[in-house]
Automatic annotation (TrEMBL):
PPR repeats lie at residues 20-54, 123-157, 224-258, 294-324, 325-359. PROSITE patterns: PPR. The keyword Manganese does not apply. GO terms for biological process: RNA modification. One of its GO terms (molecular function) is RNA binding. SUPFAM superfamilies: TPR-like. It comes from the Eukaryota. The lineage of its organism: Eukaryota, Viridiplantae, Streptophyta, Embryophyta, Tracheophyta. This is DYW domain-containing protein. It comes from Vitis rotundifolia.
Length: 629
DNA sequence: CTAGGGTTAG
């Protein structure tokens, strides 16, 4: 707004009336460029009210605003204005109109605009907009057909066509077509275009071919920030956390400055690895770069701290967030859940509901698994029914596996089996795996055999399940069963890698194998361990609860597992009040949780064991955390 | 004064 002139205080009003369409357009453009779409639409209404009529330069901004705000009704109203003003044939009006309908998921309208304007149908931009629209709405065959038509009509394909079309490839079944587009792009000389390269890279990731993505990445003569981000988040999505960290280091070495997108990927990998120190370094960098208010990063930080066992820090960040979303809530709930604080997790879930945040499928996974870990069986079952009844969310296999686990831990094995039978979706390996785990706890050999048979249909090479069954047989004294499992493993050439556990201490990773004596502090560690087991044994004698004393027998007799060593190491090296987080291969977990419970009662410290199933890259003894930077 | 596109958290 111009300031009033001292001699003509009413000049503003007069100027507004005299405003030409061009100056409205300029202001509209400015608002749209700054993503102030609501204001842009308001301005458009003001323009109409003032009697100025929109022209062909007005509509693109207005449509873009409708598209961004997802306002199909306003959009079609604007479409009426377009027709009234007669600027429908203008190519950029049409393109933005098509794009608007596509983004509002009213793609039939978009197609109608396209079909009804024969003279604009030969324009690449219109094809581009509609192809991109089909992509956006995951209409694979429509997009492909239109692309073929475009080439048949001799309309020249350009980079933007490719950028719109490549993202239709969203899964492994589209890999073939995606690869052909890659070749196509090369033929059109578009392979030098950074954006097209980035887009192809993402396509390979989404189609499940991270190796092709890496190959393309390595072959790109020029890489931009987005190229690095696409590769880093690609690795992060597949849980290849080690690759992420080494790529991040390489990126820094190249002199590319990371942005929030990069750091989100890196943080999620720190969370996977339980790399607390590395995660903290990233947090410092976030502060230094002024990204501290980015909600994506805040959520990623909550997740990282929660999974590294630093719940205090995770909670502090969570509480400090002004605008929490489902993801923030899910991250903190899952954090409490995985560290056995089910009561808190449930409390937070209820708080989320009353704050008006709508839970989604993942939020339910976090609260269901919290319930099962904390033994809150009834509460968990309540959430499971509420999920569909109150929120219209269809439970997926990931929910069923939580509930099977929930029932299984409570000893309700028959109900768990029935639940699997009644599933509306196909059960997956995790569902049967949960039942197998429950059979281990409650020593049900017969059901275990059934669950095992099913689970290896899905995951024939997952060694953890073979070990689990073998342990079930061994507890039942069934030597024949153990031998049968061994033969199966040998036939399938499965070799059990030694399970390992590790603790991060002063920026270094201290790794232990079962019975390990290679650690420099081995003597102290074993002395601590002997002392602990002594106390447990003595307690067992005085305990009148049968089940518990049997458990304690079991623990002291179970040999020197890797997590025992890791816990002892933590106890030796950290002071009172600190929390010890041990990373351990939980898939083959024996009775470590029980051991943990007993030890934490004895030493009055918080001990945490986290799943380290995917962390095979730490080899032999102590290695420096810095190696991964 | 113009339209179409690529990377982000649980």
């Amino acid at each position: 707004m111009t300031r009033p002139h001292p001699l003509f205080p009413y000049a503003n009003k007069w100027l507004d009336l005299q405003n030409t369409t061009a100056s409205w357009n300029a202001r509209l453009r400015e608002l749209a460029r700054q993503h102030h779409f609501q204001e842009a639409l308001n301005l458009y209404c003001q323009m109409l009210a003032s009697g100025d009529s929109p022209n062909a330069f007005t509509f693109p901004f207005a449509f873009k605003s409708c598209a961004s705000l997802s306002l199909p009704l306003a959009g079609s109203q604007l479409h009426g204005h377009v027709i009234k003003t007669g600027c429908e044939p203008e190519p950029f009006v049409q393109t933005s109109l098509i794009s608007m309908y596509c983004k509002c998921s009213t793609i039939a309208c978009a197609r109608k605009v396209f079909d009804e304007n024969p003279h604009s149908r030969n324009l690449a931009v219109c094809y581009n907009a509609l192809i991109a629209g089909y992509s956006l709405n995951s209409r694979f065959s429509d997009a492909v057909l239109l692309f073929r038509q475009m080439r048949k009509e001799g309309v020249s394909v350009n980079a933007v066509t490719m950028l719109g079309l490549i993202p239709v490839c969203t899964g492994p079944i589209h890999l073939g077509f995606g690869t052909s587009l890659h070749a196509c792009g090369v033929r059109f000389g578009l392979d030098g275009d950074l954006s097209v390269g980035n887009c192809l890279l993402t396509m390979y990731v989404r189609c499940g071919s991270v190796d092709f993505a890496r190959k393309l990445f390595d072959g790109m003569p020029e890489k931009g920030l987005i190229t690095w981000n696409a590769m880093i988040s690609g690795y992060a999505q597949y849980g290849l956390a080690g690759h992420v960290l080494s790529l991040y280091r390489k990126m820094e070495f190249t002199g590319i400055v990371p942005d929030p997108v990069t750091l989100v990927g890196v943080l999620s990998s720190c969370a996977h690895l339980g790399a607390h120190a590395a995660g903290r370094e990233v947090e410092q960098r976030i502060e230094l770069s002024g990204f501290g208010f980015n909600p994506f990063l805040k959520n990623a930080l909550i997740n990282m701290y929660a999974r590294c066992g630093n719940l205090v820090k995770a909670r502090a960040i969570f509480d400090g967030m002004l605008e929490k979303n489902v993801i923030s809530w899910t991250a903190i709930i899952a954090g409490y859940g995985m560290h056995g604080q089910g009561e808190l997790a449930v409390q937070l879930f209820d708080e989320m509901i009353s704050s008006g945040e709508l839970p989604d499928g993942a939020a339910f996974v976090s609260v269901l698994s919290a319930c099962s870990h904390a033994g809150l069986t009834e509460k968990g079952l309540y959430y499971f029914t509420a999920m569909e009844r109150d929120y219209g969310l269809q439970p997926g296999p990931e929910h069923y596996s939580c509930v099977v686990d929930l029932l299984g831990r409570a000893g309700r094995l028959e109900e768990a089996r029935k639940l699997i039978g009644s599933m509306s979706v196909e059960p997956d390996g995790a569902v049967w795996g949960a039942l197998l785990g429950a059979c281990k706890i409650h020593r049900n050999v017969e059901l275990a055999e059934l669950a095992f048979e099913k689970v290896i249909e899905f995951e024939p090479t997952n060694i953890g399940y073979y070990v689990l069954l073998s342990n079930i047989y061994s507890e039942a004294g069934n030597m024949e069963g153990i031998l049968r499992v061994r033969v199966m493993m040998r036939e399938r050439k499965l070799k059990k890698e030694p399970g390992c556990s590790y603790v991060e201490y002063q920026g270094r990773i201290h790794l232990f194998l079962a019975g390990d004596r290679t650690h420099p502090q081995a003597q102290e560690i074993y002395r601590m361990l002997d002392g602990l087991e002594d106390i447990i044994k003595r307690r067992g004698g005085s305990n009148d609860n049968d089940q518990e004393s049997r458990n304690e027998e079991l623990i002291t007799g179970m040999g020197v597992h890797s997590e025992k060593l890791a816990i002892a190491f933590g106890l030796i090296n950290t002071g009172p009040g600190t929390e010890i987080t041990v990373m351990k291969n939980l898939r083959v977990c024996g009775d470590c949780h029980l051991f943990l419970k007993l030890v934490s009662e004895i030493v009055d410290r918080q001990l945490v064991v986290r799943d380290a199933t995917r962390f095979h890259h730490f080899k032999n003894g102590v290695c420096s955390c810095k190696d991964y930077w």
